[in-house]
Amino acid sequence: MNDPVSSGKAAVLVEILDSHGRVQLRERVALADDKRTFSIGRAVDADVTLDDAYAAARHATVEITPDGRVLVSDLDSVNGVLIAGKRHRGTRNVEVPNGVLQIGRTRLRLRTAFEALPPEKPDQLRPASVLHDPAWLAGIGAAAGLAQLGYTTWLGVPRDLAAVLVTTLISAAAGAGMWVAFWALLSRMLCGEWRWLRHAAIFLGVAAIFYAINGVLDLGWFMFSLPQWSLRAAWVGAIALGCALYLHLIHASNIAPRRAAIVACIVPALSGGAGQWVQERQQMRDVNHIGASLRIYPPALHLSTAGSIDDYFQSAAALRAAADAKRKATRADDDDSAAGDDE
What we know:
By secondary structure, this protein is an alpha+beta fold. About 50% of the residues lie in helices and about 15% in strands. It contains six helices and eleven strands.
């Protein structure tokens, strides 16, 4: 492999970054055989001049080794050089792994010819790129959500479909708008970008997947005649909320993925548990509450064999006989207890 520095055609691109890591300025510094180092500071004769009151006139020097490593030496400055969160004062030849360092209050990124660049992005839409485009993801999630919302509304109130559907859509749109606006504002504050489409894609995509999974589980419960599990939707909702929180946190801040995963597990567990407890307390006090919430599906989807009418009446008769026997036994025990008390 040829050495870009020794060939006499190498250069270093010095980028000035803002607090969100976006490039504000770029300056190109040429390198040669007899010049592998350059200086950074406030002085006019420095190779890279910074407009930073917290930088020294000759603050640091940077050396690019033949194998592409970036070495920084502090020139006995007051504030030193900040590399990977650690401050270095008066040290020599400190390696900068990712090329990012801070001098004074200025963040810099040093890019060399050894840097591995990602492949070129296509300027035309391809089927595979749809999964990475927030606009397409948001559109697909919105369409799927509208279809599922319309279907569930039709199941509940088929006669007043138009009025209930419009009201439900307005409420859903208002809730989704507030949720996306909150995360977009957080992204603007922490990352310097609004990222509306990205957060809309996360919310709408997770909501559509949640309704789809919940519907599939409900249909499966009906098909296989499984006993009703009242907390099924709550568990699926908690998992969906956790996934949405994790994706929002990753794209709205610089939080580490591990911490984002911890928050995404704790918040749904606490909020879901508290909400479930409050709901159960209210239902216990509500005499008009009906716990059954079964959906109606075509009987052809029922996979379990149904019993005959004769079997139903025979089991009912047996149940009645068992109840009568139990009632007689209870009365006999009461009579014996009363006789013992009289004696």
